[in-house]
Write a structure and sequence with these properties.
The chain has 183 residues and is α/β, with parallel strands linked by helices. The chain has one domain. Helix content is 33%, strand content 21%. It contains 6 helices and 10 strands; from the N terminus they run αβββββαβααβββαβα. It has helices at residues 9-20, 76-88, 112-121, 124-129, 151-160, 171-179, and strands spanning 31-34, 44-48, 51-54, 57-60, 65-67, 93-96, 135-137, 141-144, 147-150, 162-165. A 4-stranded mixed β-sheet has the order 1-2-3-4, with no helix packed on it. Strands 5-6-10 form a 3-stranded parallel β-sheet. A hairpin with a 2-residue loop joins β2 (44-48) and β3. It is globular, with a radius of gyration of 16 Å.
Amino acid sequence: MFPPASLPLEAALAEDDRARASEHAWLLARFVVPAGVAVDDRELAVVDGPVERQGDVEYVDGRTKIRCGGARVPPVEEVAAFVRGCRERDLVFKATAGLHHAYPTEAGEHGFLNLLAAATFGDEEEALRAPHGSFQLDADAFRWGDRTADAEQCARTRATLLHSIGSCSFFEPVGELEKLGIL
């Protein structure tokens, strides 16, 4: 949450505390800070230029980390090529920036469910372009048309390809998942 959110550190920590007190806190992982910022009571993701460190794991912009928004929203073809490239090279990646919505927006933002489908099912361009309502997700499976990935396959995708999705907003994506009946 800090950065890329523009909140001062104390406000960002308070927002993180509020998120961690919510019923959906299980969705949270690390609190993002720039290199040189110390925070004592939580797991951190430390960003130092193009590198983000999460414990012993590093995500590098353009290699194992893709920015899906912010100053620039990459086109579907670029995101699809990144996902395919990580799959082909057996690299685990993190996606960040601009992933506030479950589905693509009219403003061109990517949907985080679309990204999950691209990583889970392949057919990356088609998955990234799938319109609102294309996916079903519950405790048993993630579904897209006639394709189904059970919980074990989703966990395998997370362990071997798409590790996590970062967003400077917690409550916006959670609110969308609630509206969709997923949470």
